[in-house]
């Protein structure tokens, strides 16, 4: 199908799902289009089981979409850049210790717990999966996706420090999780995927991680600062928007050539440009219009991404054992999230008073989303990829629908129990 026809079809389907949600379901937009997309996907799969030509053609069309390329080669950078622009950098800097601790230590703990648990669980169920592949699943499922949660946190008027902590941790652990996945994928490839053969040295793994992570942050800082200098030199809203769009696209393209992390580069550029323009409001002709543009861009891309995420379920090959593994993985992922939040909180409690609501929001509000699915698509073709796709989809659907629809109540309780004026704001 020509690219124009494909784009028109997907946008129209997404618009129809958003309309049905706004008219009837009245759920948060990202959750509503996910539910609608899942219903459409299940209907297509049902019709395809009867070998109806239209349903078969739809399945073939969706299987031709490279979901991981769509996410990692553009959309993710825009989403992270927009999210970073909206973060209060002063609050984030005040919480830099907890944010980085949770982004690094929590992600590492989660990868270890999920990886070891997945290895034991799958071998108990009869799947011959090496430990490195269990850790690979841990890396792809550990990054959290706070997009659907942040709006609810703001509506519930949660103390700013809780909101900043949840947003900052998730912005950075997206990039850390992607880098960790790349490292583990390299180890799996070096060992032939069977846990045998030559392995990457500890120094080599550390060097790769530093190149991806530190290189991405430096690239984002350089490109973001150049973008800020360009914004200062003009006084035209349209030009300012074009400049920021160019910043995101440029750092994404350059990151792929330099083999550094584009997600972390986007976060660094967004934080730097947001901070500098906050300090010097004259750098933007209209801060309100600028923020509105990026907020709208963020919302539209997220709705489209969640709709495509739901539609791509037709690509997954389900089976009874893989569904059982996915259902068991839900509990494993929640357990890992609990451990990975509580352990760093214990280390940080000496300097930061983490209230029970802070920890609960971080655990239940740690939604999994499109990043996990896209990473699952990049696992080498074979039994492990088919199994991980099913497990990932089961965890992600539970996370978006069940956690996404209930975290607002928890956020409301936190907002009522922890007024903004409380010293420390719950931290």
UniProtKB/TrEMBL annotation:
> Predominant location of this chain?
membrane
Which protein family is named in the record? Belongs to the monovalent cation:proton antiporter 1 (CPA1) transporter (TC 2.A.36) family.
List, alphabetically, the Pfam families matched: Na_H_Exchanger
Q: Which GO terms describe its cellular component?
A: plasma membrane
- Give the bilayer topology: Multi-pass membrane protein
Q: Name one GO biological process term.
A: regulation of intracellular pH
Span-the-membrane segments of this chain are 6-24, 31-50, 70-87, 99-125, 131-150, 171-190, 202-230, 237-255, 300-318, 324-349, 361-381, 387-407
Matching entries from PANTHER family are given as: NA(+)_H(+) ANTIPORTER NHAS2, SODIUM/HYDROGEN EXCHANGER
Keywords, A to Z? Antiport, Cell membrane, Ion transport, Membrane, Sodium, Sodium transport, Transmembrane, Transmembrane helix, Transport
This protein is called what? Sodium:proton antiporter
Q: Which GO terms describe its molecular function?
A: potassium:proton antiporter activity; sodium:proton antiporter activity
Q: Where is the Cation/H+ exchanger transmembrane domain?
A: 14-410
Tell me the compartments it is located in. Answer: Cell membrane
């Amino acid at each position: 199908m020509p690219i124009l026809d494909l784009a028109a079809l997907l946008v129209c389907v997404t618009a129809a799902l958003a309309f049905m949600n706004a008219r009837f379901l009245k759920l948060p937009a990202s959750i509503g289009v996910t539910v609608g997309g899942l219903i459409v996907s299940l209907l297509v799969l049902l019709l395809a089981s009867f070998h109806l030509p239209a349903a078969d053609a739809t399945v073939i069309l969706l299987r031709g979409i490279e979901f991981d390329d769509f996410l990692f080669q553009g959309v993710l950078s825009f989403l992270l850049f927009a999210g970073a622009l909206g973060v209060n950098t002063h609050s984030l800097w005040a919480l830099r210790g907890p944010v980085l601790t949770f982004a690094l230590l929590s992600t590492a703990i989660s990868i270890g717990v999920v990886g070891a648990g997945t290895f034991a669980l799958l071998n108990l169920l009869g799947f011959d999966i090496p430990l490195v592949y269990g850790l690979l699943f841990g890396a792809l499922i550990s990054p959290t996706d706070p997009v659907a949660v942040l709006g609810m946190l703001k509506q519930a008027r949660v103390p700013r420090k809780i909101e900043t902590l949840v947003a900052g941790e998730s912005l950075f652990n997206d990039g850390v999780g992607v880098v960790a996945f790349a490292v583990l994928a390299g180890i799996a490839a070096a060992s032939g995927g069977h846990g045998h053969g030559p392995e990457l040295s500890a120094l080599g793994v550390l060097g790769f991680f530093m190149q991806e992570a530190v290189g991405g942050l430096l690239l984002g800082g350089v490109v973001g600062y150049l973008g800020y200098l360009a914004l200062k030199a003009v006084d035209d809203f349209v030009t300012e928007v074009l400049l920021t769009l160019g910043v995101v696209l440029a750092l994404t393209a350059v990151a792929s050539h330099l083999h550094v992390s584009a997600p972390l580069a986007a976060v660094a550029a967004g934080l730097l440009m947001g901070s500098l323009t906050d300090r010097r409001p004259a750098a933007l002709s209209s801060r309100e219009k600028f923020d509105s543009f990026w907020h709208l861009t963020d919302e539209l891309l997220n709705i489209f991404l969640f709709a495509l995420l739901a539609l791509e379920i037709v690509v997954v090959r389900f089976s009874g054992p893989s569904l059982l593994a996915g259902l068991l993985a839900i509990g494993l992922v929640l357990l890992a999230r609990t451990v990975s939040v509580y352990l760093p909180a214990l280390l940080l409690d000496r300097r930061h008073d983490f209230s029970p609501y802070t920890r609960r929001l971080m655990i239940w509000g740690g939604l999994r989303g499109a990043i996990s699915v896209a990473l699952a698509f990049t696992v080498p073709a074979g039994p492990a990829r088919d199994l991980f796709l099913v497990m990932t989809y089961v965890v992600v659907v539970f996370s978006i629908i069940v956690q996404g629809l209930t975290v607002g109540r928890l956020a409301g309780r936190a907002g009522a129990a922890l007024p903004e004026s409380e010293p420390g704001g719950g931290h």
